[in-house]
Amino acid sequence: MSDAGDNTRKLQALDRELLWHPYAASPPAGEIYPVTSASGVRLRLADGRELIDGMASWWCAIHGYNHPVLNRAVQAQLEDMAHVMFGGLTHPPAIKLAQLLTRITPEPLQRVFFSDSGSVAVEVAMKMAIQYQYARGRGNKRKLVALRQGYHGDTFGAMSVCDPVTGMHHLFGDVLYPHFFVDAPDCPVDRECPESQMTQVADLLAEQGEQIAAVIVEPVVQGAGGMRFYSPDYLRKLRALCDAFDVLLIFDEIATGFGRTGKLFALQHADVTPDILCLGKALTGGYMTLAATLATEEITATISAGEGGAFMHGPTFMANPLACATAIASVELLLSQPWQREVQRIENALGNGLAPARELPQVAEVRTLGAIGVIELREPVDLASVQPRFVERGVWVRPFGKLVYCMPPYVMSDADLATLTGAMVEVVGQLPGG
What we know:
Blueprint: H1 3-18, E1 35-39, E2 42-45, E3 50-53, H2 56-59, H3 68-80, H4 92-104, E4 109-115, H5 118-135, E5 143-147, H6 156-159, E6 180-182, H7 199-208, E7 212-217, E8 221-222, E9 228-229, H8 232-244, E10 248-252, E11 276-279, E12 291-296, H9 297-305, H10 321-335, H11 339-354, E13 363-369, E14 372-377, H12 383-392, E15 395-396, E16 403-406, H13 414-429
Parallel strand pairs: 3-15, 5-6, 5-7, 7-10, 10-11
Antiparallel strand pairs: 1-2, 2-3, 4-12, 8-9, 11-12, 13-14, 14-16
Helix pairs in contact: 3-10, 4-10, 5-9, 11-13
Function: Catalyzes the transfer of the alpha-amino group from S-adenosyl-L-methionine (SAM) to 7-keto-8-aminopelargonic acid (KAPA) to form 7,8-diaminopelargonic acid (DAPA). It is the only aminotransferase known to utilize SAM as an amino donor.
Cofactor: pyridoxal 5'-phosphate
Pathway: Cofactor biosynthesis; biotin biosynthesis; 7,8-diaminononanoate from 8-amino-7-oxononanoate (SAM route): step 1/1
């Protein structure tokens, strides 16, 4: 047994003894792969193998790993301070990042509330919507409307607006606050959305509008709920309905923000401004956890003038200076480069590379948008048996449900993209036929 192999087995044994991984039993059913370093688009395993990361660490490492610009930002901020409480205090990284975010998002979104993670950003958005309605004397407006097949996070509030049937949180259904759900749009991303697609949500707002504080959606791309793409026109029509029925509109762009769909924000496909916007994941380029919830001045002022005179939320690590400094560096790095061209290059490579999967009987659909490539199967994937097949081919892809998909870093080369898509098609082709 080599030293590398021995070290790998020791790490795996300790992991199985001590740790509990996401969406997994403990110990996990499948193999866990110890990573010792990462650079560019490659993960280096303890046994010396390297994997091309097709997941960008759950969609956030848009610049790849160990980037010198982000490294310098962390080191420079560390010389000043790693953290300071945000209650009664402020600091330059938080201010500069807020200036940057309000500059690159739609103009009405002028207030920034920082939090720890995407799930918390959604919690914050939901609380903002409800507290806003309460401050307006509309305390009965306490429910939200969400799309089926949507996903918004793992905390309790976020779980309550995830798909109640096919989502990952159906076991908690009896203890979650009940909200309203409507069918997800089924209009192609490159088409207008027919009025018939709006009937269900329009009827719900007409019948239950006095109870509804806000509608929450993932614009254009429904992520972990199914990697579904839909027409931006749906968002334009939904905005008009929300205005007509005095309901706020929340966009969850945690997965889609910062270029993933080919636009800096997915809302730009529709040229629609929400009342509240949630950002996270790629905000720091995958270096550390940070999220932001942006709101209009009307929401901010109304809540601030209401009972208590304050918004009732405050994470301990809110606006962490290290994370804010890294986020500034990541966003500025993205904007300083021809990122649209790179994302378009990736979209073309994914489209070409995954196209052969359309001929496989196991495959229901192949779709791409921006730096997102999806092979949807007819039957669910057995993750424990499939994951090692990707590792053997030198790529890291993490399927779920019926989906074998990738969201690569924007710096991935054409050659690596070809290796990634080739492995996806090859492994899918070895699965039981449809």
